[in-house]
Amino acid sequence: MISDNDKLAMIHSLVDLEGNKGRIYEMTYTVDYKLDEAIDFEIDGVDRLKMFVARHLMDSNPSHEDLPLIYDAGCSAFATRDPKSGDYLMGRNFDFNHFAPGTHDRIMIPAIVVHTAPKGGKKSVSFVDGLFVDYKQGFYTDGKSDLSMLMALPYLLLDGINEDGLAVSVLKLDGLPSRQHEPGKRKIFTTIALRMILDRASRVEEAIAMLREFNMCMDTEPASYHLFLADASGDFAIIEYTNADIEQHPDKMEVLRGEDTLRYVTNFYVSPTMADTPHGINRSQHGMDRYLGLRDGMKQHHYTLTPDEAMGLLESVSQGPDGDQSSTGFTQWSEVFNLTQKQVTLSLLREYSRSFRFGIEKKL
User: Fold this and answer.
1) Integer Cα distance of 207 and 194 in angstroms
2) Is the peptide bond preceding residue 154 cis, with omega within 30 degrees of 0?
3) Confidence class for position 181, pLDDT limits 50, 70, 90
């Protein structure tokens, strides 16, 4: 679906970071991914995101129904400070199980590292689960996968960091998806919001202000998401969309920040509004064991961790591959974002004896 020479050159610049294993790739996205148009398109779910990709990023104008695209996220995240260097850090596990339909056969995914440098915006590096666009391990050289959907990468991020040291991540919640309907505000989908934040915000406070300008719309059934943000000034926040009536779609944006107990998050609501619902901190068990592990690890170290200790904490709350077979039961990658140095250390598939290191820009 791509004929433009610049787009083709970008697609063919993808690099397998392990030579030929097909597990982790890196690419610099060098063409315009049209964020202004994406925001104006008022994307409110996966179907409309596919429509935008088909109309604005492809060359052959395919039917959006023919484009493969899903989106979901499990995960754990926390913010801390390195007591030795003083650097601010964010830790993050992306946990997700992909199974072949109707089976318990796990599909192994490729992680894709995406560098972006939008004209007039901020450079960033973000991380994508390739199976969200139907790419399995080794897709790039299997001779049959259509590489056109690499054009969608800027809008498939699960986490990332920009040149100012602002990091974002998205984590799954149970219950109905968030849908705001405040008059006069445009609609925005989770991934578009993440991309907007990385491209245009320098601090957590700026990201919060941007989110308040939109009606957040999510369409994964039955699930919603909350966001975890941290920046190079040491600020951090959890963004949730809430409604105490769980029969109604969450529609109130809440910002939770400023206390050490809000430095870590997994897969239930931490807002007092939701606390006593089945999806809130007082009743939900979705990620509670990981949450308690983060809490105990953070308290033990007085809420400060070196990068090695941060990765160790991620390892202690990692999942799989032989544990829980739920949708969030397998750690695909673990990351320590150094918000001060604007760098990321990533361990793939719980292989904590080795790691990959990324800056904002791809090394030549």
Assistant:
1) 9
2) no
3) very high
